[in-house]
């Protein structure tokens, strides 16, 4: 399994996941840069994502929805802060309404994704800093660790083809 470590700290409002992939950094970058590939790994396996809008550029926006096994749709958005292709990117990640507008009552995180190549493998570090400790606790209660781990663990299958 690619995810090798998961930590969270309510004092710093931080959730960190580390993963190692048997693929070069550029290949991992492509997963996030291509909306059709992103759909295959964003969200837990039982909640597949559909990317609606995808602009992975500073000031750009990514919108998507995940579909539950019962067919319910859960929209979300990214607001891209910075991009350092293929080393990583920073974005604000939040829940959205059916028109992809932010839902102010739900937690928002500033995520920093970093991809470092070592001997043909990629070490990915996913750091999310939540606006509040309550926000982090809310997503922990919602199962973010299990969901994010399941999502990230799908990347190996995608990049091995």
UniProtKB/TrEMBL annotation:
InterPro entries on file: ASHA1/2-like_C, START-like_dom_sf
Query: Taking every annotated instance into account, which residue ranges of this chain make up the domain Activator of Hsp90 ATPase homologue 1/2-like C-terminal?
Result: 22-159
Q: What Pfam families would the database entry show? A: AHSA1
CDD domains xref list = SRPBCC_CalC_Aha1-like
Record's superkingdom? Answer: Bacteria
Family to which this protein belongs: Belongs to the AHA1 family.
Question: What protein name is recorded for this chain?
Answer: Polyketide cyclase
